[in-house]
Design goal:
The longest helix has 17 residues, at 149-165. Strand 7, helix 6 and strand 8 (198-204) form a beta-alpha-beta unit. The chain is an alpha/beta fold. The protein is globular and about 55 Å long. Helix 2 packs parallel to helix 3, helix 5 crosses helix 6 (181-193) and helix 7 packs across helix 8. The protein has 8 helices and 10 strands. The mean pLDDT is 94.
Amino acid sequence: MTLQYQNIADCVGNTPLVRLQRMAGNTSNTLLLKLEGNNPAGSVKDRPALSMITRAEQRGQIHPGDTLIEATSGNTGIALAMAAAIKGYRMILIMPDNSSAERKAAMTAYGAELILVSKEEGMEGARDMAERMQAEGHGKVLDQFANGDNPQAHYVGTGPEIWRQTGGTVTHFISSMGTTGTIMGTSRFLKEQNPNIQIVGLQPMDGASIPGIRRWPQEYLPSIYQADRVDRIMDMGQAEAEDVMRRLAREEGIFCGVSSGGSVAGMLRLSREVENAVMVAIICDRGDRYLSTGVYDAPN
């Protein structure tokens, strides 16, 4: 008998889909959550991180030992640091200095080099610095915001998994939007199966600060984003997202981050508008990488 063993990269994807129980209330709708925190580096970004590196290798654009550069608000950086460790790349990550301590520590634990920009410079400043470093010959920018291998990971992974796990009954897909890779790739696949499936994106209200999702200025809008793949966009307040995030932990045993709380808050809004729907929301990461920010300290 020959034993077959997986490596850590083989464990990306095929995450659980679980039913919302107490928070769903009295409804004819089925509310389902895709637990992406079960990926090995702890978030949905494991999928595009591995995809961007693997597919660039296959095209001969990068080779083990090269230096890779990426601007990140956190989860993509952690996932890329893991993928770089698996495959043997030097990883330089650029991120705003107001990101949580857990996110920074996770990146360096995987061996990545971290460069911080100010909160005021934000992700726009981090993206600009990554491009300058590439122009100066310091490494290759994968560019999650413009790289088609980002949504492709969800077209071949997340979308088919949801379709299979719901037996093709899914009627609504809800996802917070950052790079927009998750919603773009998943929408493309699900709409090919059933064009009537409603795709709902979450963006922060003006002034809200929800880690991992953005309301992009037009000049920084990710080029992978295609507006016609999203049927509806909801504006999400920070307090509502944080409240639902804490409720998920205390009422459902689902420990996640603020953007995931926003996705479920959007799902609960939708559930009050329709009947007999099968809704799927992305729980994009785990809550342990936000503990130092104090978001779990506030009482419900």
